[in-house]
């Protein structure tokens, strides 16, 4: 049997296992039509502040209207809900917002309708390279890049001045941890037991020149590379911060919101976080943005280019939709640079295309400083996506199980982690 055939059977069995609960109820749901006979396309979206609803309205036509349904906040819960519905061949999903780690899994299981080649070509031409890579599996773009997020290093200008650290030059994790510890500050990160912590681990390993896994085309026989010099350097950074006075008190449970609160508090010094965080302060504390500085993501190894996290959303069309052609037409509209910019202006989740930054009379330039928008785009060019594989959920779960809490990370963690994940992949251990 071919590797791809083995992957498809294995991936489908895994997702079908998720569907045991609630499969009959979800199968009863179907796509709707309004009383006027107009088709209703249902788009399952990740929670946001209204950007997806706005572009859904923009792309509704006389032929069809696009209605939105909000998925759970947690990315893995989003995956489980969609997987259950799709495994049941539920036609009630037409379009869905999919996190990059789950793109390969959904495609490999046969849940996504193929994107016409002409639309693939158009999206490839307009999208950032990182966005295209995250949307591609087995040589084909399987979701349409909608928005692309990245993390930068945010810092308080007043604190950097007090600490005497030159933020005009690239800085390392060691440097910002030391600067914060010596001057009564905190380094805010995301290290709860969830996907956001794995994002940090991946960025640290990538920044040390490594990868979590390679040869992913071999399926379960991919090459895990966590137990490596890069993995050792990543573990050293996490352990250093966790045992430093620069560690926030809530480090082991911190997600994006908690990190943002730490940064906005009296001990705020440095923070890594996504693009939308910039707009979280000014309405609450007028003038706060004047003290916010921004720089490239910290280097894991001094002199070695950092690899910031890559995040975002791709739009997939369900294979089981009763309106695949209409849904593809809608996706083309939703992912246009103009609508990417509309979504970015409302949510702070930046466009997946360079053209999206300049659409609609440069609306983003009125909200963000030009150097910050340039930094976002530079960071996207240098970003490191998480490993593209149908088995990412197992890898992520294994990393969370063995690298958490951060205070327990040691020099043996990379080896322990790799062995455990290999056992999970081959059915010798359970998450």
TrEMBL record:
It holds the Pfam family SBP_bac_1. Keywords: Signal, Transport. InterPro entries: SBP (IPR006059). Residues 1-31 form the signal peptide. The keyword Transport applies. Belongs to the bacterial solute-binding protein 1 family. This is ABC transporter substrate-binding protein. It comes from Nocardioides panacihumi. The lineage of its organism: Bacteria, Bacillati, Actinomycetota, Actinomycetes, Propionibacteriales.
